[in-house]
Amino acid sequence: MNDELWSQHHFRGHEIKISGFETEINDIKEIMGFIKDLTDKNDCTVQLMRARGIAGEKHALQATAQAIKAFERNENTAKDLGLEICLRASAQRQISKALKILGINKGKNDLCVVAVDGGKSVQKKLENVLGPKQKVLKPDIEVLQELYQISPLEIESAGDMERVMVERSAILNLEL
């Protein structure tokens, strides 16, 4: 288990862990079944998202914090905290659009993994299944610009891509 590659945060009584993985997914149903069993047995939330649509750790953390607040206020769109995280990270109002942007695919995947209230045993099980190749979440500006139709001017005025995505998810929060 490599604690260094998992960022850890606390928000409103929840422990949030975020990491990046480079992994091969051969069977999506199998991996989703594993995640469901893991979360059911450990009373936690785990969300796997394609890292190409995440502008960095702050972006994933902001989306997670907004999702937690949405559930506390009964203002959530999704019935599941993990899906709400995905929705807010993608700055979309519709789950289908969020999954199109951040949903995992069969084959090679660079993943952003968010675990809420999972603890070390969940972290270890995720590492065992997703593999040892963890990587830092670094935004690919061109991919993010294309995915979210972000202009160079918007990046310049916000300061950087991560701030653009944090701002967009905050704006979505106001709209929902």
TrEMBL record:
SUPFAM superfamilies found in the cross-reference section: PF0523-like
Pfam families: CGI-121
Coiled-coil annotated residue ranges, if any: none
Highest taxon of source: Archaea
InterPro entries: CGI121/TPRKB, CGI121/TPRKB_sf
Similarity field: Belongs to the CGI121/TPRKB family.
Name under which the protein is recorded: Regulatory protein Cgi121
